[in-house]
Design goal:
With 165 residues, the chain is an alpha+beta fold. It has a single domain, classed as 2-Layer Sandwich (Beta Polymerase, domain 2), CATH 3.30.460. Helix content is 35%, strand content 21%. It starts with 7 loop residues before the first strand and ends with a strand.
């Protein structure tokens, strides 16, 4: 939601999770657009995912295969405002690695689970790629973007799973 003052607030339905003033708006509005797109779609059906669901395991394996770092999953099922059952977040040290991880996730999920993403964003700049499978949202980020946006802090009431090889 863009406010008259030029600030962007309350993306994806969480109160006060991020406020960006107009002087930072240009730099970060692209990333906020990625997050705000999540609020415009509905979660799939009644099937609730678990950490052991095939799609979760497939995504984690695809990230690990391309050497993604600091992989975590956030179980958001018990959070009323959550836009998905899970967020999976990882880091990549370069733009080519972000592309490789993101493409591998999409290819692996298509091959193993028969699902295409509902939406994806960030392939142009490759600082933060968001892959939306509706019930699972994957975030492949450069370390600087991850530190700035602090998704883990925003969803600190989620159950965190650490995924080391």
């Amino acid at each position: 939601m863009v406010l008259a003052s030029g600030s962007i607030k309350n993306c994806i339905g969480r109160n006060n999770w991020l406020t960006i003033t107009s002087n930072k708006k240009t730099k970060h509005s692209h990333y906020l657009k990625q997050l705000s797109s999540l609020s415009n779609r509905k979660k799939k059906g009644t099937t609730r995912l678990t950490r052991n669901s095939k799609i979760i395991k497939t995504i984690i394996a695809a990230i690990q295969e391309k050497k993604g770092n600091n992989i975590i999953s956030l179980d958001l099922k018990k959070i009323k405002e959550a836009v998905a059952d899970f967020f999976i977040i990882c880091e990549a040290g370069s733009q080519p690695q972000i592309r490789a991880i993101s493409e591998n996730v999409e290819d692996s999920v298509k091959e193993n689970c028969g699902e295409n993403p509902y939406h994806h964003e960030g392939f142009q700049k490759l600082h933060w790629v968001l892959i939306d499978y509706v019930n699972v949202v994957v975030h492949v980020m450069q370390p600087e973007a991850r530190k700035f946006y602090k998704l883990e802090e925003m969803w600190n009431d989620a159950i965190v799973g650490d995924h080391k090889e």
